[in-house]
């Protein structure tokens, strides 16, 4: 008999988990045959038949092993199962952020899904993907856009699926916002702040505004991708600048925004991703958004993005 | 012998200059290398974004202590790659030669060689204060404190992993007294006094063959005036936003005589006199 596990929805996949996942938006009814199962188990230190061995990770066919020294080891197999072995004395909740990021990246790559490293917000039924490396303010900008009339779709992984008509749909990653304490204060979201992302960390899970009132994230056509670029700080700060990219410029830049793109490369996914990105560009416009980092610059950036979204496609 | 070569030093001790000398020598071109494109085989192993790409781990989620065990894994990975590709990879480092609880060096066990640059700590104090935009007294506190670290800032594309420096004397000793990696120690002052000769000795240690003519060309392309001119024209990416002077500011030897008060100089000598004497600074 299959053991029944608490469940969540992550990037359109039902997930049964033996580990509680703080920071996820919603329980789904307990499921006996989830798409993905997360369990605690003994995880090997290495994999036989490795295709690639990196400094902390190994790919062997449809298996991916991640070593988080002093924290945990994680084995992701066949797009279906994540096994986690926390290091002695480490709390499960302190391992979860890595399961939800790199662990799910491996699941999505094993399943052949196009997943961008992006926060996503819907604007009048069309989604904006905010792409950029870690620490460039994706989550903060997404939360600010939600304060200005947008509705939240996802915090960190934008999994794209194509519907029957070939329209690229971004599927929610099931997470809440994850924001640094200063961004929570600045955006006045203290009432919605939840637990810290990891113990003793000043980054917190924050329920998206409007969520309690039924603003459930849902799959949304990905109309626009903004590639976030940071400007050198000058005085006075230059205003945000949005530039449309043509297809030949956009395609290689989007490849760089694939979440854990190096892993995808080592899993020999380059050709498949090339095709998926080409299809995406059939329905999605791509822009560069150059702006100065800093909370005081947020209103100008929000204004520039909302102006873009109000323009006819 | 191919592999990783550490270019190690306390900050503001000539590390970037030597990288530019190497870059100009190895470029084989008849013009000075762009200071913002130091195309010497290099690998940054402390930049958070680069580390995330290599390890698939978002280091912003890690505590300072949790980042340390990643460092030897990264260092050994890069060393193995360099050896497999039969090339030298030069890696700039400011860490002290620091060991984890289990005795593993932070910089791993597989580097081929290390160059270590040492500079009079009184001049380091002056240079550091301009570079970091703080007072000379603060710079001296950093040189004297066993807890001094570089980096550690979260987020942003320029964020770096925390790098333990220890105090100045222990930084010097940690490198010059380790026996894991063959090391060549070079005084900044000697490199300033006779750049071509001292750089030739560095090349000898690295087993890089170069004619007198090519060495002299590299020296002129990495001449301080040239570097200052390039920085004035187009800036330098390694300069910090908080700096109160250009990165290639003065390079002067014994600038401390004019810039430090007698008390400030005495504080440095009181703390570091033994090692300073060892390197001919007293």
TrEMBL record, chain A:
InterPro entries: P-loop_NTPase (IPR027417)
Top-level taxonomic group: Bacteria
Gene3D superfamilies, sorted: P-loop containing nucleotide triphosphate hydrolases
Name recorded for this polypeptide: Hpr(Ser) kinase/phosphatase
Lineage: Bacteria, Pseudomonadati, Pseudomonadota, Gammaproteobacteria, Methylococcales
TrEMBL record, chain B:
Transmembrane regions: none
Domain Sulfotransferase as annotated: residue spans: 5-280
SUPFAM superfamilies membership: P-loop containing nucleoside triphosphate hydrolases
UniProt xrefs under Gene3D superfamilies: P-loop containing nucleotide triphosphate hydrolases (3.40.50.300)
Keywords carried by this UniProt record: Transferase
Annotated InterPro entries: P-loop_NTPase (IPR027417), Sulfotransferase_dom (IPR000863)
PANTHER family: SULFOTRANSFERASE SULT
Name the UniProt record assigns to this protein: Sulfotransferase domain-containing protein
Native species: Methylomonas fluvii
One Pfam match: Sulfotransfer_1
């Amino acid at each position: 008999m299959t053991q029944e596990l608490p469940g969540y929805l992550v990037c359109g996949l039902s997930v049964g988990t033996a580990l509680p996942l703080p920071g996820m938006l919603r329980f789904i009814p307990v499921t006996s045959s989830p798409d993905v199962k997360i369990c605690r188990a003994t995880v090997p230190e290495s994999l036989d038949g490795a295709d690639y061995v990196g400094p902390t990770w190994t790919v062997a066919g449809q298996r991916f092993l991640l070593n988080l020294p002093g924290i945990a080891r994680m084995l992701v197999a066949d797009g279906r199962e994540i096994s986690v072995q926390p290091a002695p004395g480490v709390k499960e909740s302190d391992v979860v952020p890595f399961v939800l990021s790199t662990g799910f990246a491996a699941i999505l790559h094993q399943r052949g899904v196009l997943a961008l490293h992006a926060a996503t917000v819907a604007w009048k039924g069309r989604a904006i993907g905010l792409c950029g490396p870690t620490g460039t303010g994706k989550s903060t900008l997404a939360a600010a856009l939600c304060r200005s009339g947008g509705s939240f779709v996802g915090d960190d992984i934008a999994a794209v699926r194509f519907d029957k008509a070939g329209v690229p749909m971004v599927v929610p990653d099931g997470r809440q916002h994850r924001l640094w304490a200063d961004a929570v204060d600045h955006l006045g979201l203290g009432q919605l702040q939840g637990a810290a992302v990891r113990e003793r960390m000043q980054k917190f899970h924050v329920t998206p505004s409007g969520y309690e009132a039924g603003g459930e994230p849902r799959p949304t056509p990905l109309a626009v991708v903004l590639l976030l670029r940071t400007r050198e700080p000058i005085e006075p700060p230059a205003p945000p600048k949005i530039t449309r990219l043509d297809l030949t410029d956009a395609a290689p830049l989007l490849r760089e925004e694939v979440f854990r793109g190096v892993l995808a490369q080592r899993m020999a996914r380059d050709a498949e991703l090339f095709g998926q990105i080409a299809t995406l560009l059939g329905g999605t416009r791509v822009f560069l958004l150059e702006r100065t980092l800093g909370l005081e610059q947020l209103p100008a950036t929000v204004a520039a993005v909302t102006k873009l979204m109000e323009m006819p496609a | 012998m191919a592999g990783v070569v550490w270019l190690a030093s306390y900050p503001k001790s000539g590390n970037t200059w030597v990288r530019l000398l190497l870059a100009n020598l190895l470029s084989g071109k008849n013009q000075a290398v762009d200071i913002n494109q130091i195309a010497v085989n290099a690998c940054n192993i402390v930049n958070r974004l680069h580390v995330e790409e290599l390890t698939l781990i978002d280091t912003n989620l890690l505590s300072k202590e949790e980042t340390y065990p990643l460092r030897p894994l990264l260092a050994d990975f890069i060393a193995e790659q360099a050896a497999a590709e039969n090339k030298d990879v030069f890696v700039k480092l400011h860490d002290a030669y620091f060991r984890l609880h289990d005795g593993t060096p932070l910089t791993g066990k597989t580097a081929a060689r290390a160059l270590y640059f040492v500079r009079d700590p009184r001049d380091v104090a002056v240079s550091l204060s301009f570079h970091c935009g703080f007072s000379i007294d603060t710079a001296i506190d950093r040189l004297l404190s066993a807890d001094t670290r570089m980096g550690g800032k979260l987020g942003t594309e320029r964020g770096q992993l925390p790098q333990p420096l220890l105090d100045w004397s222990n930084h010097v000793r940690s490198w010059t007294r380790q026996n894991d990696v063959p090391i060549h120690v070079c005084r900044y002052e000697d490199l300033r006094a006779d750049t071509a000769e001292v750089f030739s000795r560095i090349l000898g240690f690295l087993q890089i063959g170069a004619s007198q003519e090519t060495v002299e060309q590299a020296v002129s392309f990495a001449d301080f005036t040239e570097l200052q001119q390039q920085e004035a024209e187009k800036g330098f990416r390694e300069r910090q936003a908080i700096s109160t002077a250009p990165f290639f500011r003065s390079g002067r030897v014994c600038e401390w005589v004019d810039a430090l008060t007698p008390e400030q100089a005495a504080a440095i000598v009181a703390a570091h006199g033994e090692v300073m004497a060892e390197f001919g600074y007293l």
